[in-house]
Amino acid sequence: MKKLRKVIAAVMIASMGLSLASCKSYKKISSDEFTKIMEENDYEVYEEDFRGYKEYLYAVNEDGTITFEYYLGEKKSVVNDFFDAAHDNLKAENKSGTIKQTTNKITFKGKMDEDSSLADLEYVVLIKSDDMLIAAYSTSKDSDYIDEVDDLMKEMCG
What we know:
By secondary structure, the protein is an alpha+beta fold. The chain is 40% helix and 28% strand. The longest helix is centred in the first third of the chain and has 20 residues, at 2-21. It starts with a helix and ends with a helix.
């Protein structure tokens, strides 16, 4: 009986460890940090008003194939709602791509439905941390562009 308890305890601990691993937390950055990183990488940064958000900025690379967006919500729930809606939209418009989601990150790679407003997107990454969300979109499936998105997301969010 004691042996069975130890096995059950070990299995529970292992499963808790796996669930924590899939819930990686990402660091929250300021709009100034976002702007600095984007400008250091030759992106043009723009700021606009966006309802429900304290701050909204977007940055576009030189040839227009990659766009990053920075959202700082007035409330954490605004960011959570946006994150959930983005996942739903990607699922609905997905033609032949793969969507991976954890608690704080969504990744899409592939083709969208041709009639979709998202039809040009080949690679999408969204990361949220507290009341901040950063989204990146590439219209190219070229590995150099995908690597650039991943490298910049890692630099910004960890």
